[in-house]
């Protein structure tokens, strides 16, 4: 457990220092594979904690089993990662894992470390998700964002 906590903290520090070293005006976005390389250590460390015996109850284990394929699509060895996979991880996988962590019987300190790991993973996903959002066509904008007809 302590190794996993140390891994999350190390990954967090590494990601934050990498973010600080990128010039603010640099228009070049990381590739999906580069983002996955940043996101996966944290996500996999949290999954490893949650899959230890007794870490979560059977209902949460079922939810984790549903979220794991989303993480595996991005983090499995040799995975061909796309922006769609990263978006799915950000919108479905990580939030589901966060809910499982928050509802788990883990000690508060372990929960905080796991939440930090998920937050770091979400922060690493932000640039590529923002770039993909800004290039979406008007047809893909949800209808709720349009003014209501009278």
Distance between the termini: 58 Å
Task: Characterize the main sheet.
Answer: none
**Helical proportion, percent range:** over 70%
Q: Using DSSP, what is the number of strands?
A: 0
Beta-strand content bin: under 5%
Cα shape:
elongated
User: Count of helical segments?
Assistant: 5
Secondary structural class: mainly alpha
How is this structure best described in words?
70% of the residues lie in helices and 0% in strands. It contains 5 helices and no strands. It is elongated. The protein starts with a helix and ends in a 16-residue tail after the last helix. The model is unreliable at 136-150 (pLDDT under 50).
Keywords:
elongated; 70% helix; disordered C terminus; mainly alpha; 0% strand; 5 helices; 150 residues
Please provide a brief summary of the model.
By secondary structure, the protein is mainly alpha-helical. 70% of the residues lie in helices and 0% in strands.
Give the secondary structure arrangement, pairings included.
Layout (H helix, E strand, L loop, with lengths): L1 H20 L10 H19 L7 H18 L7 H21 L4 H27 L16
Helix pairs in contact: 1-2, 1-5, 2-3, 2-4, 2-5, 3-4, 4-5
């Amino acid at each position: 457990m302590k190794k996993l906590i140390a891994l999350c903290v190390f990954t967090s520090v590494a990601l934050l220092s990498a973010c600080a070293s990128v010039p603010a005006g640099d228009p070049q976005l990381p590739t999906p594979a580069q983002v996955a390389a940043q996101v996966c250590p944290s996500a996999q460390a949290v999954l490893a904690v949650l899959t230890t015996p007794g870490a979560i109850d059977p209902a949460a284990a079922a939810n984790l089993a549903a979220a794991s394929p989303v993480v595996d699509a991005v983090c499995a060895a040799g995975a061909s990662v796309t922006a769609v996979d990263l978006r799915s991880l950000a919108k479905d996988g990580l939030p589901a894992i966060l809910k499982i962590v928050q509802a788990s019987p883990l000690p508060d300190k372990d929960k905080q470390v796991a939440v930090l790991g998920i937050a770091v993973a979400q922060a690493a996903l932000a640039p590529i998700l923002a770039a993909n959002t800004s290039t979406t066509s008007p047809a893909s904008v949800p209808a709720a964002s349009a003014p209501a007809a009278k």
